[in-house]
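FAQ: What does the model actually see?

It sees only this:
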Amino acid sequence: MQSFNFKVPTEIVFGRGAENKAAEKLTAYNAHRVFIVYGGGSVVKSGLLGRIEKSLQEAGLFTQSKGGVQPNPRLSWVREAVKEAIAFKADFILAVGGGSVIDSAKATAHGTANPEIDVWSFWNGSVKLEKSLPVGAVLTLSAAGSETSDSAVITNEETGKKAGLNTPFNRPALAFMNPELTYTIPKKQLICGTSDILMHTLERYFTSVKEENTLTDRIAEALMITVIEATRRAIKDQTDYDAMSEIMYAGTISHCGLTELGRCKDFACHKLGHELSGRFDVTHGASLTAVWGSWAHYVYRDDIPRFAKFAERVWGITEGTEEERAKAGIDKTVAYFKEIDMPTNFTELGIGVQGEDVLEALADSCTAGGTKVVANFHPIDKQTAVEIYRLANK
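And it is asked to produce this:
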């Protein structure tokens, strides 16, 4: 096992009716004025938002709510939310929704705590974040793992740039996780969410660290097997509590940092996929599966034994040479994405075959005009990014 630092301060309340403990827990965290953020109308129509507002108010807390968060959460929405939260004198931000809502809540918390600074400054790196407000999350979609992660992603519509921020201030104080709240999500959100969970672990499994980290690897492999099996069950029956609870728990574990201990993040496909989401406004999970197979076929020779191990432990592939097993594991993963109706190239993603100028522009943005290299398993410069995009461009 290699050296690491690991701290996840989030208190998780998991199981049926977990959201009903929100008032009790927020009060214990000394919340008084709770600014609630949410997405579309589903949490309103289901009555979930109303139930939470009522319980908080009955406990003596003041609340104000703001909806309208979109997938690939927008900077303009966050800026408006910051203004409203400051005027409300919020001291706690509560997200009711999935990853985009939670990321928006994190950004709102950062902006509210730093009213003299434009919130985008934290994402573009021009200002270091040094304080924030506490954030809580009532999870309604298993996907991003933002309920415990140190990351948050925001899209600047003016520039088309989707950027992530990693900081300890992004760790929520509380996460309320009731799998039953995910029963009615659209199938597309279900499969995009579980694909995102897989990708968060894959992007930590294939890294530049060659030394053995047995327990971390076994946790990652078990998580991926569990998600694959549970997703197949959930597609058939989204009210399968066991399947949906395994998916929800896996989403948290996949992005809290546990599956990278002694290793690191690579996140090559996230960097490549963010550019697709920023330019074409495609769903995050779909942008990842659309490029993963192309990335894997391009880089697998950098560590054939690692890909062969993945093939054996996750997919049970034991026949053939080491390289044949490695390639078979990649093909099996791509086939699985197709099986659950996730895209594996640009046409399946819905953006069609792109011109060379677009591929160059995507690669240019991904590598800051060719001035930086991203990822570490196979460092990706601008030309490498173009070549991977070409492989997916069909």
